[in-house]
Amino acid sequence: MHLFEHHISTRGSQQMTKVTDMVREDIEKSGVKDGIVVVFSPHTTAGFTINENADPDVVRDMLQGFEKAFPTKTDYYRHAEGNSHAHMKTTLFGPSQTMILSGGELILGIWQDLYFCDFDGPRNRTYYVKILEG
Question: Membrane-spanning residues where (predicted)?
Answer without folding.
Answer: none
